[in-house]
Design goal:
This protein is of the alpha/beta class and 229 residues long. The chain folds into 2 domains: 153 residues, SPOUT methyltransferase, trefoil knot domain (Alpha/beta knot); 60 residues, Trp Operon Repressor, Chain A (Orthogonal Bundle), CATH 1.10.1270. The chain has 7 helices and 10 strands. It has a 5-stranded parallel sheet, with helices on both faces. It has a 3-stranded mixed sheet with strand order 3-4-7. A hairpin with a 2-residue loop joins strand 9 and strand 10. Helix 1 runs parallel beside helix 6 and helix 4 packs across helix 6. The chain is elongated. It starts with a strand and ends in a 6-residue tail after the last helix. Bound molecules: adenine. The site of adenine has 12 residues, from strand 5.
Length: 229
């Protein structure tokens, strides 16, 4: 998977991606992450990327020229079926595990991160991105939302996670039939009077599987009844 990220703050993306599992995914060649700063494409002598809104009002609006030129500079794969262009926006369709899984089948995703009050509407009209929101709250910029997508999409790509870290049994995944994940325990057997459930020590894989499934159901009923059925 190739991610191309248009952002006024490439350091946010790069510093995150150079850590932990993302870094390993890049080193293994499973994903690649490139950043592009619209400021580098601005034709304004002060490298301005935004301007005041027509009609008045507060804040600044990202202007068309730097964004269009930046987007057009990115090399795109020929195969449009495997390509997606996503704009991070609180007005977009709501992100989910299902969407993460679906997007993990693409070969290239270009992301456009916003800042300031928003984008000139002609960016939407002209470039026709798929707009995605990570939830009903407003962030200062699209970078955090973009990283949320990069992380959760990548977890579903083959060989991204180590074999002991499979996403198959993550909460919301098919492995758990869309339920929340069951609780985990590690050594010691007892900590501050709290014991590991006996069944997990039994070595009986069938019983352990059933116990975990029941815990998943119990947890989902209690915390997210909306997920059942
Ligand atoms: N940019 C600002 N808020 C956002 C949100 N909730 N989701 C995606 N992008 C955003």
């Amino acid at each position: 998977m190739r991610y191309d990220i248009i952002t006024l703050f490439p350091e946010i993306i790069n510093s995150y991606c150079m850590q932990s599992i993302t870094k390993r995914g890049i080193e293994k060649g499973v994903i690649s992450v490139n950043t592009y700063n619209p400021r580098d494409f601005s034709k304004d002598k002060h490298k301005k990327v935004d301007d005041t809104p027509y009609g008045g009002g507060e804040g600044m609006v990202l202007a068309c020229q730097p964004i269009f030129d930046c987007y057009n500079s990115i090399e795109k794969i020929e195969d449009s079926q495997n390509y997606e262009f996503i704009m991070l926006s609180p007005q977009g369709e709501k992100f989910s595990q299902k969407l993460a899984k679906e997007l993990s089948n693409k070969k290239q995703i270009v992301f456009l991160c916003g800042h300031y009050e928003g984008f000139d509407e002609r960016i939407r009209l002209g470039l026709k991105p798929r707009e995605i929101s990570i939830g009903d709250y407003v962030l200062t910029g699209g970078e955090l939302a973009c990283l949320v997508l990069v992380d959760s999409i990548s977890r579903n790509i083959k060989d991204y996670l180590g074999k002991d870290e499979s996403a198959h049994n993550d909460s919301f995944s098919e492995g758990l039939e869309g339920l929340l994940e069951y609780p985990h325990y590690t050594k010691p057997r007892e900590y501050m009077g709290l014991k590991v459930p006996e069944v997990l020590l039994s070595g009986n894989h069938k019983e352990i599987e059933e116990f975990r499934r029941q815990e998943s159901i119990k947890r989902t009923k209690a915390r997210r009844p909306d997920l059942l059925n």
